[in-house]
Amino acid sequence: METVLGQIFADAHSRRYDAGVVLSDPTASPRCAFMVAGGALKVTKLLSNGREILITILEPGAIWSDCALIKGYWRETYIETISPAQTLSVDNAQFEERVYRDSETVTALMSRIGEQVSDALTLLDDFRGRDVATRLASLIVRLSKQYGVAQGDSVLIDLPFTHQDLANMIGTARETVSRNMSRFRADGLVRDDGLATLEVLDLRKLEALFC
Fold first, then answer.
1. Which of 96, 108, 135, 161 could bridge across to 127 with cysteines, CB 3.0–4.6 Å?
2. How many Å apart are CA 55 and CA 122, to the nearest integer?
3. What's this model's pTM, rounded to 2 decimal places?
4. 185 with 199: CB under 8 angstroms?
5. What pLDDT does residue 96 have?
6. 23 and 52 within one domain
7. How far is CA 141 from the centre of its chain?
8. Is 137 found in the same domain as 119?
9. Are residues 9 and 99 in the same domain?
10. Which residues have a Cβ under 8 Å from the Cβ of 69 and sit 6 or more positions away?
């Protein structure tokens, strides 16, 4: 699949971004499709009550486009880098032509998009009916397994998630996340020291909070 999708962006324009750059928002009308080649981007949506919720994270290999083929995909969302990132982009017309070139490419693209949507839905389903502390513990464990880097007995989450990012992921307020993080720190489960890095000191005990 990687080779098939890579062909779409074989001669794509490469661009690098610093962390915190907004690539797309609901008022924009992007004219290109892109594949994430490095770093990570977050996809957030502003709800009718004014609260922002983080839908998913686009990692290397993820694809985004507003083309007719997948019209409505990530519609009405913000896409922002959460770390220095690199994208490979082609204009919409070129993207559609290459996707429709053969059935194998269409199948590969739909499979990739399905994986990205499934990941977002799994995140939401994991939190259904759980209190904030349990949702937060579940999220941190999930991020540890996805982005964690072993540091001896601990795990460093290798992306700069802020308390606001964590709050957006579990649908609560930043202050609520901060209170629960203080509790986790006091219990020796995590270390963040107010920085945009998060170290999990005892993954097993944290996982036991929601299992």
1. 135
2. 10
3. 0.74
4. no
5. 84
6. yes
7. 15
8. no
9. yes
10. 96, 99, 100, 106, 109
